[in-house]
Structures are given as C-alpha cells and as structure tokens.
Amino acid sequence: MSTGGAKLSDVFVCVPSYNHAGYLGQCLRSIITQTAQPKKLLVIDDGSSDGSIKVAESTLKDCPFPSDLIARENRGLCRTLNQALELSNAKYFAYLGSDDLWLPEFLAARSRLLDERENAVLGYGHAYLIDNSGNAFDSTTNYIDSWANYPDGDARSMILNGGAPISSTVAYRRSALNDLSWNENARLEDYEMYLKLMTKGEFAFDPQVLSAWRQHNTNTSSNRLMMLGELLAAHERNLKTLDTSQAELARVQQRIKFQYARMELQHGNKSGAMKLASESWRGATSVNQLLKFYLRMLVPMRLVEMRRQSRRRNGKELRFE
To answer: pLDDT per residue over 112-128, tens digit each?
Structure first.
C-alpha cells in the first residue's frame, strides 16, 4: 500500500548487500523515498561480516511498502542476482549495489520509459560519481565524447566494443530475462548479461542523471586489468551471440585493449599502459589518437593528479545525505 502520496510502480527491486554497512542505510533510504514505490524491495545479504544485517533490519523497519531481508552465507554477486530474479514478481526488475544510490525520480522515470518503449529490454542513463562521503565529484555526462557515448536503441556496437551501461542506472524488462541468468562463474556480472540482451531488443536511453555510482578502493571497476580479461573471456563464451567472425572479433578486441591502455595511463599506471599499448597499438582509431597516447606518456603524473583533484573539489557542490 502506498503512503505519503507516493505512486506505485511495477518494479521488483533487489539490493545485493556485501560488507557495505557504512553505505547500506543511505542506499536503502534512496529506494524507500522514491516518488514511485517499488512493488517489493528485497535485500539479500551475501555473508557480510561488518554489521550490514543490523543496518538493513533497522532501515527496513521504516519501509512503507513490502520488503524482505534474506541473510545467508556468501555465494557471490551473480548467484545473488539469480536468486533475486527467481523471486521477482513484477513487470520490471532492477538491482542497486549496496554502496550506490538512486535519485527520487529513478523508478518513476524508468517505469515510464519502459512503458513507452515496448521493444526495449532495459532502460538506462547517466550517473553521478560520488566519493565515500556522498559528494558528487563527477558525472558520466562529462565523458560523452569517450566511454559514456550511450546509444538509444541498438546497443550492439557499444557492447561489442566494450562499452556498457552502469548497473545503478539500469532497469530491466522482466520478460526479457525469462530464459537468461547471470553467469555465476563471471566476475564482471553485468557485461555478459548485456551481451546476451543486445540482440533481444532495444536499450532505451534516458539522458537524465538519476543514479549515483560510488567510487572507492573496493570497486570491481578499479581493477581494470581484471575487467579487461573478463570482458574478452565473455566475448569468447558468447561468440555465437555476437554474430561476428573470429577475424572481426580480433580487430574489436585490439580496439578494446588499446582503450584499456589509455585508461591505465589516465590512472597513472604507465608501465601497464605501455605493455597493453605495445600489444594493441593497431587498435587506435586514428594516428592522432596514437600520438596523443604517447605524448601523454611524457606528462608527469603529478599534473594529471592535480587536474583530477581540481575536478573533485569543483564537483562537491552536490552532496547526497
């Protein structure tokens, strides 16, 4: 039953929780205060040892719509998501990492988008990047010219070339997942799911910023070389779905490796960047891109870090409580 004038949505929401006690309450409150309440909120604690269960129990006491907490031994994120999917009973399915946040209009906007786009298997959009204290220091909207050039509709090119929606921005059409599951042997859970979905329907894009993706040292995304390995392995496992030749896939993977070389350089790992670039320089999209890479190798990292810190300081006008 809706309270406080909030609308109801036909979305089943899961929070896979693991050792994020310091962030979990804020995450859950961002769901509880949605302008369109979920049909149900399920928190699955995946063997936390930091008091997350107590935080979940305390926060869910104030939940005005159906909610449940499952606490069990550690099984990993993909098995947790598959468990939630089996228990889901709504038209749409969304999950939010226990360190991430939704803005109040998220569920209303995603429900409306998917209602309007019957051919869409999911809806997604942009996200703020926030730090440990909840300060927004950046946004994916600042990277439209590079890795956040998100398409509306056919997402095959983006996914095949290593791009992907940020999970905190995504809501799925439940029926699109009926014959699918998250690969429980994969460490990069969302990318392989996007590979499976990209040929089943559209990826509906909403340019609004309605999510917050928290950045800290334990993010999977901070281990970029692991992500690269998982991404390339996902290609090999899903070759039939990709509908491409081994030769074309090899060219795609060269481009992806060079993209990751650039990312390693941006984060100060010059030796790792050079190693990847030496293997994949043919993956550069232009001679100009290749020249920029090698010129940037000469820039002292202290200058790059000064720029990064300046962006963080300038971005702290927006804070999530």
So the answer is: 999 999 999 999 999 99
> Which candidate, 176, 178, 130, places its Cα nearest to that of 155?
176
Please answer whether residues 78 and 196 qualify as being in contact, where contact means their C-beta atoms are separated by less than 8 angstroms. no
List the chain domain ranges: 7-221, 244-307
The whole-model pTM stands at: 0.89
As its CATH architecture, domain 7-221 has Alpha-Beta Complex (3.90)
Query: To which residue do tokens 């906007």 refer?
Result: 109
Extended beta strands in the chain, E state: 7-8, 11-17, 36-37, 40-46, 67-72, 92-95, 101-102, 120-130, 135-139, 171-173, 202-214, 318-319
pLDDT digits (tens, 9 = 90+) for 39-48: 999 999 999 9
CB 120 within 8 A of CB 202: yes
94: which strand partners? 13
Within 10 angstroms of residue 195's Cβ, the number of other Cβ atoms is 21
